[in-house]
Design brief:
It contains 14 helices and no strands. Helix 4 packs parallel to helix 8, helix 7 crosses helix 8 and helix 9 crosses helix 10. By secondary structure, the chain is mainly α. It has one domain.
Length: 345
């Protein structure tokens, strides 16, 4: 248990925080919070996993070999970003403590605790966790049937999106069974990241009154808790399928896309700030698209047109074509990966 806690702190907190420090230095200071650094770090970790997983799949590597290579790469990258972003530590801003923010924090904690006692029995979870268990114990990737464990050959339909393999990687890092990791550890992490993004959106929308941002986030909490009006709402996915790929896209990737579009739309005082925001936008568009693809194939269909439409509106509002150009350039990596996948498999 002590080893698991130490490994969890290292691989689930220290490493993602390091990955997010340097990119977040491009954000305006008022949005450069510890929570946003964690969100950016996790999205980068998911995106990098997709980029390293596909070559490993094509080369026939084992799951444990991929885990070793990926740990080394993100470990070195996180260390490099800690060094590059060290001077920006003093510019990190913390939320102001006021009644609405306290209420928001308590609502999030309550949902995280309630998450521990929930059980999910849907078919998607059987597939997602079955894939993670096969990878973790079978040292393979998408060649075993997640329902039976029998070898079936490469699952071409699902293999481009390694959400279950990524969950198995997290389990491998902290030495816990994938079911425990998914239902308790990873689920709570995703819940917290989800609300960090919505709080950040509130800070953009209510820039002059930060207490209104916390109130906005409180309403999001309430809507999520009482949003189970059908099987297909984002709230239902958030609280019953938290760790599944479609839920991560709906409740993390898409809200984050709105956040960076809103930040880009905000006026700035200097040309330097606009260039920094545009660079952050370009980097995070590519990262968010790849992170969405990591979790589900629908990410490759939803995020690119969403970003392009948003960039068109931002370009019209700002009277600058650069957001559209940046979006098109940022879509190149996901396009190359999908094309290679189709050509090779």
């Amino acid at each position: 248990m002590i080893l698991t806690i130490i490994l969890g702190i290292l691989w689930l907190m220290v490493i993602p925080f390091g990955l997010g420090i340097f990119p977040c230095s491009l954000l305006p200071k008022k949005y450069r919070s510890p929570g946003m650094i964690f969100v950016v770090g996790y999205l980068i970790m998911m995106a990098l996993f997709e980029c390293e997983y596909l070559p490993a799949l094509f080369l026939g590597m084992s799951f444990k070999t991929l885990c070793l290579i990926f740990r080394l790469s993100i470990g070195f990258l996180s260390l490099a970003f800690y060094i590059l972003g060290f001077k920006d530590f003093k510019s990190i801003t913390f939320p102001k403590m006021h009644p609405f923010f306290v209420a928001f924090t308590l609502l999030v904690i309550l949902q995280c605790v309630a998450r521990w006692f929930q059980g999910v029995t849907d078919g998607d979870d059987a597939f997602f966790l079955g894939t993670a268990v096969n990878s973790y114990f079978g040292n393979s990737m998408y060649v075993l049937d997640p329902y039976t464990g029998f070898e079936t050959g490469l699952d071409v339909r699902h293999a481009i999106s390694p959400g279950g393999v990524f969950l198995a990687y997290l389990s491998n890092c902290i030495k816990l069974h994938p079911a425990i990791t998914a239902h308790i550890i990873y689920a709570d992490i995703l819940l917290v990241l989800h609300y960090i993004v919505y709080y950040a959106i509130g800070r953009v929308l209510f820039e002059k009154k930060e207490e209104n941002a916390a109130l906005f986030a409180c309403f999001i909490c309430i809507f999520d808790v009482f949003g189970n009006i059908s099987l297909f709402t984002s709230a239902t996915f958030l609280l019953t399928r938290t760790w599944q790929g479609k839920s991560v896209i709906a409740n993390l990737c898409i809200p984050f896309a709105f956040f960076i579009l809103l930040v880009l739309m905000k006026e700035e005082e200097t040309n330097k700030m606009w260039k920094a925001k545009r660079l952050f936008y370009g980097i995070m568009v590519a990262v968010t698209m790849l992170a969405a693809l990591t979790n589900a194939t629908t990410g490759a269909l939803l995020l690119p047109p969403m970003f392009l439409i948003g960039a068109v509106f931002v370009s019209i509002g700002r009277r600058k074509i650069s957001p559209v150009i940046a979006t098109c350039i940022a879509a190149v990596p996901i396009g190359i990966l999908v094309l290679l996948y189709k050509l090779i498999l």
